């Protein structure tokens, strides 16, 4: 019995240490999930005879295009966030591997929550389920980084550099989730306003429209 317990402990200590496999799996899941998003947008199966009828049929797909764009941005931001964290890690273990597996489970769920939101855009429940998906993604991403820092898996050696990077990563996740929560609550006013706000947040985080740009260097005196 004791030998079996020692073997189990030893296995847990050596399993899941290859970061390259985690990165490959993550990229594969993200690629498939991004592809599945567009499959929810189907050409209307109606008999079209005039340009006006075709235009009206296309307009009926606008909620699906809206949710597709929203989710594509969401996946892009979370893929970038996870890639950033992995780039600073020199070691890995079984616990972090399972964290990533559950993170990818939620990534693969996004095509469903996107389709649900696109089908029931005017319903608060659809916005709530989509927001819950984003919340859990952010939570697992935060836990992933926190665990790696706590167990010294991060490759950054200088304390000042580590503190700056650690603060930036944590703050970005927390602020983003607060903004997503505010955006989700806007559905009680209008689901379209809620979705528009979340898209605005996504665009800002993707392109640093409001914040995140490098500060300009002051010119030396006399120049």
Q: Can you give a write-up of this model?
A:
The C terminus is likely disordered. This protein has one domain. The N and C termini lie far apart (77 Å). The radius of gyration is 22 Å and the shape is elongated. It contains 8 helices and no strands. With 223 residues, it is mostly helical.
Keywords, please?
disordered C terminus, 223 residues, 74% helix, 8 helices
Structurally, the number of domains stands at 1
Structural class: mainly alpha
Q: Uncertain segments of ≥5 residues (pLDDT<50)?
A: 217-223
**Whole-number mean pLDDT:** 83
Hey, roughly how much beta strand do the residues contain? under 5%
Give me the strand/helix succession.
HHHHHHHH
Percent helix range:
over 70%
Between the first and last Cα atoms, what is the distance in angstroms? 77 Å
Query: What best-fitting shape do the alpha-carbon axes yield?
Result: elongated
Radius of gyration equals 22 Å
Query: Count of DSSP helices?
Result: 8
Tell me about the biggest sheet?
none
By DSSP, the count of extended strands is 0
């Amino acid at each position: 019995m004791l030998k079996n317990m020692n073997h189990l402990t030893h296995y847990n200590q050596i399993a899941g240490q290859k970061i390259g496999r985690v990165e490959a799996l993550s990229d594969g899941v993200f690629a498939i999930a991004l592809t599945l998003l567009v499959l929810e947008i189907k050409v209307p199966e109606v008999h079209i005879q005039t340009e006006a009828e075709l235009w009206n049929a296309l307009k009926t797909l606008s909620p699906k295009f809206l949710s597709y764009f929203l989710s594509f941005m969401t996946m892009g931001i979370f893929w970038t966030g996870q890639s950033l964290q992995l780039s600073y890690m020199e070691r890995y273990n079984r616990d972090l591997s399972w964290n990533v597996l559950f993170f990818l489970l939620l990534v693969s769920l996004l095509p469903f929550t996107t389709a649900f939101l696109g089908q029931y855009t005017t319903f608060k429940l659809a916005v709530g389920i989509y927001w819950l998906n984003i919340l859990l993604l952010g939570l697992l991403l935060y836990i992933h980084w926190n665990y790696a820092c706590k167990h010294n898996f991060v490759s950054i050696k200088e304390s000042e550099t580590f503190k700056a990077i650690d603060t930036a990563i944590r703050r970005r996740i927390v602020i983003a989730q607060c903004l997503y929560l505010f955006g989700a609550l806007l559905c009680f006013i209008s689901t379209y306003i809620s979705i528009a706000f979340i898209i605005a947040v996504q665009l800002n985080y993707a392109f640093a429209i409001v914040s995140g740009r490098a500060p300009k260097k002051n010119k030396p005196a006399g120049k």
